[in-house]
Design goal:
It is a single chain. The chain is α+β, with helices and mostly antiparallel strands. It contains 22 helices and 20 strands. Among the domains are: 156 residues, no CATH class; 93 residues, Gyrase A, domain 2; 151 residues, Glucose Permease (Domain IIA), CATH 2.70.70.10. An eight-stranded antiparallel sheet has the order 15-11-12-13-17-9-8-19, with no helix packed on it. Strands 3-4-6-5 form a four-stranded antiparallel sheet. It has a three-stranded antiparallel sheet with strand order 7-20-18, with no helix packed on it. Helix 1 packs across helix 5. It is globular. It comes from Pantoea coffeiphila. Its main location: membrane. It is found in: Cell membrane.
């Protein structure tokens, strides 16, 4: 599993323990004197926040295990108790907070996946299989306790110092957090960032001497200084994004408004009431990236302004109207939380005006403005019934390439997280006709389908259907809306121009070498692909086009990039450089990342490589050139990295 895949899966695992917070907040709120005045209810809710790290240990262990096993959850709890109790005997000042729960949960889940089926000798057979998992987890966590007892104090001090720094930055720190939080939404990695801010940064000790960490924890424990990482989200989620939805509705042609109005109203109401915004955000995230960048900037500004005004508000799940009403009179809520509603009205107007202007000026294909060929919509099954959910799930399996294309089916709140054999078999149009807001391709084997709040139900139904038998992929073609009279097959026109699919820039500065002059038979014969080569004179290797880094070799001497139009580019620095075992190369970007043309990917020690490599002539080829009609070379004798155009790919 690569780093991106690990954090993707971790973000999903964090969803389960976070999901218990709303019930805790409800009990804590309704038990207060100004409502039911029942302390035992408030204490019941408070118990969740008091034991949040343990809940994370159990929840992460369960969801990280291969079959959501109870044995893994038990092992997570065992590991947590051993880790936390053993560490403090070495250093009483250690307090890892929810990180202790996350770490032990990962250890327990991984231990279950590795040893849940272990066979022991007969006299120890009682302790074999799943019973072995808590035992092994306890041992591993005891070893971790011995390590963290000495290693963690400086890390804890660093986190504390970092938290103090970002809190000391005040409004600016909150604004940066809000901006980055939205930018990470497309990858799903925002949950990892949120966990640090909401459950780790900051410290508050209540009257009973209990220490609480993180914005959410501290807020519900009564810390009147908490909320800087939460307050500014309320105006955006309750008002700003619904304003964006109205702008998209008004920007659609009048005849298409009825078609998109119900969908936009649904996602806008969801955002307002619950703060769940992904179904709305994915409607324009990829169709109109400029709008999404504006949205991220406005989110950062909202958190900046809320902190600047000294507003302290919090939520248990997300910044919707339900959470706003529940927290309004809590002890930690500032007296001016009503100003969030004023900010919300302003945000609604700003979003509506900006989105309306940008959509029209840039002619963006927001809902209702798509080309006619994209508007064919299948009648969706009633997913509120068991039969309807089964039908919808079966259709999604077909849309993602059939059961043979699926390796792993997972889900979070709004997304199907799928591991597939070939992402190229996923039919985007079919998914969207089923109601998906968008499809995210992280690499050739990892995709996300944005389906809304029913994601987990669809995922579970898909698993059950696949267990019953194979399901075929849907046809790649779309059934036309109206029958078309048959026509004679068009005659091919020799050398007809089919358009330019993409233009590559030089990945490194240097002297151009014709591909047939490369001193390597595989490249010179174009068996690897067509293109050219460069003998480098600079040390930084950049992306020759915008796209996804689907592969970076472990030795860092080469990478494969897939452009948005499907061209697969291989950049191979030097010949036989794989034998150097990675020496002379430094990776700057991780596999699976999306890069833009000219973005640095590798750094080379050129002097070392010139002395040790067989040749530093570096091919840059299109490996799937057979999918296109050819190349047009543009490079001169020398090129400059990220600036000089080297060739065009003809469609």
């Amino acid at each position: 599993m690569n780093i991106l895949g690990f954090f993707q899966r971790l973000g999903r695992s964090l969803q389960l323990p976070i999901a218990v917070l709303p019930v805790a907040a409800l009990m804590l709120r309704f038990g207060q004197p100004d409502l039911l005045n029942m302390p035992f209810i408030a204490q019941g809710g408070g118990a969740i926040f008091d034991n949040l790290a343990l809940i994370f240990a159990i929840g992460v262990a369960s969801t990280w295990s291969k079959d959501n096993a109870g044995a893994a959850a038990l092992a997570g709890a065992v590991g947590y108790f051993i880790l936390t109790k053993a560490m403090v005997t070495i250093n009483p000042a250690i307090n890892m907070g929810v990180l202790a729960g996350i770490i032990t949960g990962l250890v327990a889940g991984a231990t279950y996946n590795r040893w849940a089926d272990i066979k022991l000798p007969d006299f120890l057979s009682f302790f074999g299989g799943k019973r072995f998992v808590p035992i092994a987890t306890g041992f591993f966590c005891l070893v971790l306790a011995a390590i963290f007892g000495y290693v963690w104090p400086p890390v804890q001090n660093a986190i504390h110092a970092g938290g103090e720094w970002i809190v000391a930055e005040g409004a600016f720190g909150a604004g940066v957090f809000g901006f980055v939080n939205r930018l990470l939404i497309p990858t799903g990695l925002h949950q990892v960032l949120n966990t640090i801010a909401w459950f780790q940064i900051g410290e508050f000790t209540n009257a009973a001497g209990t220490v609480f960490h993180g914005d959410i924890n501290r807020f519900y424990a009564g810390d009147g200084t908490a909320g800087m990482f939460m307050s500014g989200f309320f105006p955006i989620m309750m008002f700003g994004l619904p304003g964006a939805a109205l702008a998209m509705y008004m920007a659609a042609p009048k005849e298409r408004r009825p078609m998109v109005g119900g969908m936009l109203l649904s996602v806008a109401v969801t955002a307002f009431l619950t703060g769940v915004t992904e179904p709305l955000e994915f409607l324009f995230m990829f169709l109109a990236p400029m709008l999404y960048l504006i949205h991220a900037l406005l989110t950062g500004i909202s958190l900046f302004v809320a902190t600047l005004l000294g507003i302290h508000a919090g939520f248990s799940f997300s910044a919707g109207a339900i959470d706003y009403a529940l927290m309004y009179n809590l002890p930690a809520a500032s007296k001016n939380v009503w100003m969030l509603l004023v900010m919300g009205v302003v945000a609604f107007v700003i979003y509506f005006v900006l989105f309306s202007a940008v959509i029209r000026l840039m002619n963006l294909k927001t809902p209702g403005r798509e080309d006619a060929s994209d508007l064919v919509v299948e009648e969706e099954a009633n997913s509120n019934t068991e039969e309807g959910m089964e039908q919808l799930s079966r259709q999604y399996i077909g849309a993602v390439g059939g059961s043979d294309n699926l390796n792993v089916i997972d889900a979070c709140i709004t997304r199907l997280r799928l591991s597939v054999k070939d992402a190229g078999l996923v039919n985007d149009a079919a998914c969207k006709r089923l109601g998906a807001s968008g499809i995210v391709r992280l690499n050739k084997q990892t995709i996300q389908v944005i389906v809304g709040a029913k994601a987990e139900s669809i995922a579970e139904s898909m698993k059950k259907l696949i267990a019953k038998g194979p399901i075929a992929a849907v046809a790649a073609t779309v059934t036309p809306v109206a029958p078309v009279a048959p026509a004679a097959a068009p005659q091919a026109v020799p050398n007809a121009s089919k358009g330019i699919v993409g233009t590559l820039v030089a990945p490194v500065s240097g002297t151009v070498v014709a591909i047939d002059q490369v001193p390597d038979e595989a490249f010179a014969s174009k068996a690897v692909g067509d293109g050219l080569a460069i003998k480098p004179t600079s040390s930084t290797v950049v992306a020759p086009a915008s796209g996804t880094l689907v592969k970076i070799f472990n030795t860092n001497h080469a990478f494969c990039l897939e452009t948005e139009k499907g061209a697969e580019i291989v950049v191979h620095m030097g010949l036989d450089t794989v034998a150097l075992q990675g020496k002379g190369f430094t990776r700057l970007v991780e596999e699976g990342a999306h890069v833009v043309a000219g973005q640095p990917v590798l750094e080379m020690d050129l002097a070392f490589l010139e002395a040790n490599a067989r040749s530093m002539i570096s091919p840059v080829v299109v490996s799937n050139i057979e999918d296109f009609s050819g190349l047009t070379l543009l490079a001169g004798d020398t090129v400059v990295a990220g600036e000089s155009r080297i060739y065009e790919i003809n469609g």
